[in-house]
Amino acid sequence: MTTTTVRLLIVDDDPLVRAGLTFMLGGADGVEIVGEASDGSEVAALVGERTPDVVLMDIRMPVMDGLTATELLRARPGAPEVLVLTTFHADEQVLRALRAGAAGFVLKDTPPAEIVAAVRQVAAGEPVLSPAVTRQLMLHVAGTPTGVRKEVAGDRLARLGEREREVALAVGRGSSNAEIAAALFMSVPTVKAHVSRILAKLDLNNRVQIALLVHDADLVADGD
User: What is the pTM of this model?
Assistant: First the structure.
């Protein structure tokens, strides 16, 4: 079985962090470091030149932060996946990056093997974000009043058909395509088709944004 090589761009303003990540991740099977950037303002050009599959993006950088860079990058057609690199579990900027289309986040003290696994996971189109982590972020972050956000999210989800809504709620609970297929008596390709339609109808980039919208609408119970 041949392992597909994931092309990775590392973005961090600390040269020691970049060097450490390059050393740790560059030797992993199936990962190729195609470039480094020290600031978010360098990302767009490097993505155009190096065509990475995944961008490992620091949040706090002096000229253009990772949040702004993520928003600009994910607004482009055919953009690579973004995996946020942070020192905080629950942080407003992390949540904003996820809303902008980042596929998940890892902490800077995460073991190298787990970062490699996360890079491969987002490259395969699967988010790196559990329902528990989503709830933690939502609880710790201030912003739009809960009632307003809940109403807006509910209105958006109302655009979905019945089966699409069921799939969206399952995504919000953190279920995989296979788990959704088993629970809703569908084939996995049918689940994938529903997810694609949900993304298109709601103008979202990835499953993380579906999950966040479901959480905004307060449709995931604490026990899920």
Answer: 0.76
